[in-house]
Amino acid sequence: MSKFKKKTKADTTIPTSALPDIIFMLLFFFMVTTVLRDQEILVEQKIPQASQLQKLQKKSLISYLFIGKPKNTSLYGSEPRVQANDVLVTAPDIVQWVNQERDKLPEADRGGITISMKVDKDVKMGPISDVQTELRNADARRVLYASTGKIYDN
Amino acid sequence: MARSKGRGSQEVNAGSMADIAFLLLIFFLVTTTMASDKGILNILPPKLDPNVPPPDIQKNERNIFTILINANDDLLVEGEYRRSPDGLDKEIKDFVLNFGAPTEKGVALYNTFPATLQAQALRRAESSDDPTEAVVSIKTNRGTSYELFLEVFDLAKKAYFDIYGERVGLSADEYRQLTGDDDASKALQDRGKADLPMAISIAEPDKIGGN
Description:
- Chain A: It is found in: Cell membrane.
- The complex is a heterodimer of chains A (about 150) and B (about 210).
- By secondary structure, chain A is an alpha/beta fold.
- Chain A is built from five helices and eight strands, in the order ααβββαββαβαββ.
- A five-stranded mixed beta sheet of chain A has the order 5-4-3-6-7, with helices on one face. A two-stranded parallel ribbon of chain A has the order 1-8.
- Chain A is elongated.
- Chain A starts with a helix and ends in a 5-residue tail after the last strand.
- Chain B is of the alpha/beta class and about 210 residues long.
- Chain B has a domain at about 60-165 and about 200-205.
- Chain B contains seven helices and six strands.
- Chain B has helices spanning about 15-30, 90-95, 105-110, 115-120, 145-165, 170-175, 185-195, and strands spanning about 40-45, 65-70, 75, 80, 135-140, 200-205.
- In chain B, strands 4-3-2-5-6 form a five-stranded mixed beta sheet, with helices on one face.
């Protein structure tokens, strides 16, 4: 028995003095990358996949339009709707919305406004074409079809 | 003097620092959404002035690669019916690089290509004259699903990015990663697409079968 007891116990405590530093590092990472959600999404958003994605250089130029079936179908119906900021709008309101978004930008950048269209997979081309017609009327012709990455195997 | 004041313990109790940091960390973990501003860029055509008649463009049928997609998500590519868009990128690339009957501009462009791209010119009489003339036309229906449209548009873009990349000795992916921030990548980017604009035309959907 005494043979087993002879083993000296190593000090098993982990030094925790550096723990706050590690946690702080993680904290700063998330603080920097975080974007607080300033709007509630009222429509379904299953973003389609594509392979030829491009990233825009200036994020400040992007305004978002969400298109999809409303989540609250009893209130808004089941037809795809367009959400701008935090309200559902109809197609003719888009021109006014674009002008408001454009006025928020500094004067030199107003020509480069880009509309990121976050469209649900199940939407048909009809509503999208209506929105694009309005965007052309508003002369906001740079459109980004938001999509997530996909890899082709060829 | 101030020195005479008795000094108590000057150390802040740092034991609970980790807990506070954890609390903040968890808050930001929960509220964070990784920014995803990636997508496929498209430039819409300008609004038509009702007082000016639309420009009458005469183009040879062979210079237009037509893709029609109907409300059942069936495709009609250059008059041929098919169920899925697989392989379209290769066909579009062959079409653009055909050089059937190049114009002066086309010949000048051809001479800037590296040998690997020049070898891909099939010179078929029934396909496009040269890349400056070639147009890829995508026409959908109001009932076409957005997902399929995006897939086809994606493939058309892929064909062009393949060509741009090959021109400067990169793969399509590497070419797309070029940011244009510094002079070197900007030069590569410009050299890839010089005199060869992406001619992808998206026609307004027709009304049958949609809502």
